[in-house]
Each structure stands twice: as structure tokens, then as C-alpha cells.
Amino acid sequence: MDRVLAFGCHPDDVEFQAAGTLILLAERGWEIHIATMTGGELGHPTLPPQQIRARRLEEARRAAESIGATYHYAGGHDLEVQYDSPYRRRAVRVMREVDPLLVFTNPPMDYLPDHEETSRLVRNAAYIASIPNYDCGVPTTPTNRFPYLYYWNASSLTDIFGRPLPLSCVVDISDMMGGKLAMLRCHESQREWLAHHNNYDDYTEIMRKRSERQGQGIGVAYAEGFIQQRSTGHPQDNILKEILGELCVELPGAATSLPGRHT
Ligand SMILES: [Zn+2]
Description:
single chain; 263 residues; alpha/beta; Rossmann fold; eight-stranded mixed sheet; 16% strand; globular; binds zinc ion
């Protein structure tokens, strides 16, 4: 088996949107890597950024460890993620370090610009990590392949205009919800922050409901939806279907929407 990299913006993005699929891949022998662009340093109502970053990096490391994954922090800062050279280099450093066959990241359309910029940076890194003359600032070995690239669903399961994203497939994670919840619970600092800032009574319940809504679209208890990048360079076939078989339900046509995904 090969390596998969789930590269999100914040510590907990992967746990909300793609952890069930990662656990399925881990069970099938894939080497799992989780990376975050930022240290989540603004995600607390009272602690100073340095303290909250240290706490959140440790939470992310423990969540990754719970499924045997390796955690990488790309070195960025909350609310500062830019499509610029320093951030491009950060993204490529992680991409070259892991050299994945399969990459997941935030979708290009989501409620927070940091998520969207991370999506662009990871997409770009997946494409340019193989360019020998691209200098990412530290000695690295260029990759020698284009990975499969998938975006997970938007945080609210819609774009900023309330429209469903054009998912290409949905993965049944019903049997993995226990492990997914356990990973998210490692991000204990977010219980307080998301209650304060996003008015969430229980952040793990928000994740459970999102997974449930995505499951309703394919008639299972819990699911995670993805959009595959199918443009120049990247492989066009759906490797998730090949690996996961009937657990991966392909949706015909990029504009297909799932019923029952609005609250
Ligand atoms: Zn986030």
C-alpha cells in the first residue's frame, strides 16, 4: 500500500470532514499522514496564541496517533493564510516530505478564506512538488508523480451561497464513526472555543450531524463526501472506489446534489 496525506487548514478540519475515510484506508494498510497549514493559534477565547498553538498541535498529534498516523504542522498562522511564496513553500515542503499517492484537502469553496487559500495551496503543491527547480527553502527531494487529489465537503456542506457542492463520490463511514469521534474528542480545546465563537453546544455533535446528513444522501448512517480533481496531470480514475468498493458510492455528473443535506 501507499501513502495518503490529508492536508487541512486547521487542527480538527480533517477530523470533522475526512477522518472516517482515513480510518478505512488505515485498515487497508495505507500509511496515513495528517497535516495542518496553521497551528490553530487564534482558536480560543482567552489563551494567548503561543499557548493555544502548543495545545492544539499536541491535540492534533494525539488525534493522528490514535489511528497510527503521522502529524505534520506546515508552519502557518490562523487568519494569515495567503496564496504567496512563503505559504507555497510550506505546502510543498509537506508534500515532498510525504510524497503521497492520495491527497485530501479543504474544498475550494468554503465559509472561511483560510480554508479556501489552503485548498489552493495544497492543490498547487500537489502539482508543483515534482518540479525539480522549484525551491521550497529547504533541501528536499522532488516527487516523481501526480497524486490523486480529492477535496472534502464544505464545513456547512454548502458553498457560501447555500448551494451543495458538486460531489463526485460519498464514502460510507458508518462503521468508523467511533474512531472518528475519538479523533475529534482529542481536540478538547475546541469544545470551549466553538461554544464561544460558533455557538455550538457540542462540537462533536455537529460533526455527527454533518456525517449523518451526508449519509442520508446514499441511504447509510454516516458518510463523507468528496470532489475529485480531474484536470491536467492528476489521475482521472476514482481510486477511492477501487480501494473501498461498495463503501464508495459514485455520483453521476459533477452537478449532482444529494437530497436531505440541508437543515
Ligand atoms: Zn477549519
